[in-house]
């Protein structure tokens, strides 16, 4: 009974922490990783910096919403498969509900020009800067790793393609494997408890490919608009690297030219998705609601996030085994260094470039960073302070 009570309390804690993050994590996927590091690594200590960096690297390898996959992975580490599902629900629920309600009731409201949005962008600058500095201190401790981080930064910032991040990671893995000395890898253990069997992983990977191939076939055989919508969202979630910003043009091509959704409605929803916290993939909830009501919104959300679940659960058992291999650890040192460079690149474009527009913006971002890094104020408090500052100023 005591063991069951402990598991239940752990699951409740996972939901509460992830739900708070879902209500306060503005700024897109890279900003979310900053919020996650602050909450899960620095405050809760559910995993260490090295394990967190490895989980971030895995999410960069896999297609789908990177920040959501990291959140699911942390939930699995803390509470098994059920913990992963609960972590996902907590982080995703606030934005799904907000976008469904927006589609139903206030579809013509323009949120993107509101002053508080600018304040939240400045908070994202501070949170991501804090996360990048912390990770760089752990993962780029010598000249080879600093060089790999620099290379990843240069590649991804000069070639802003959805595959540039994957290429940077693959090149850094090869360089780490070939040239990194075993003693140069991090001495901090990255071993975490992943309670997923290899058989479960194989089943999930098989189901992922079965749905990817089977849904388009069913769509041609069965003339059902709801099935067609589910196929569109599942394929979007399966084939996109680089997070939510990349999936938006894919969805536009699926729904606007066919006349299912007007260009104006699509752009209105896009603005709303930028204005709410949580993962940008929840834009699917808005589109599904416009098409088929709130039931369509829930189905679209499930369809676009299902590939992320199947791929992560399928990859984790093999990923954790590989980390125990000495050669793979050398490659992993290169991968983690590349992740630092990728995060720095994303920090400047789009987070810094879209938020910093005046000397006042720089001043406010510096204040928010100082409150977070030096005064150790919680991120949720700084989010509220940023929104109020943007609204007033």
TrEMBL record:
Subcellular location(s): the record lists:
Cell membrane
Gene Ontology MF terms: chromate transmembrane transporter activity
Q: Which residues cross the membrane?
A: 85-107, 119-137, 157-180, 201-221, 233-251, 272-292, 298-319, 331-352, 372-392
Decide whether keyword Cell membrane is in the record: yes
Q: Which GO terms describe its cellular component?
A: plasma membrane
Q: Name one Pfam family in it.
A: Chromate_transp
- Topology relative to the membrane: Multi-pass membrane protein
Q: Which domain of life is it from?
A: Bacteria
Keywords, sorted A to Z: Cell membrane, Membrane, Transmembrane, Transmembrane helix
The record's similarity note reads: Belongs to the chromate ion transporter (CHR) (TC 2.A.51) family.
The record, for PANTHER family, names: CHROMATE ION TRANSPORTER (EUROFUNG)
List the protein's name. Answer: Chromate transporter
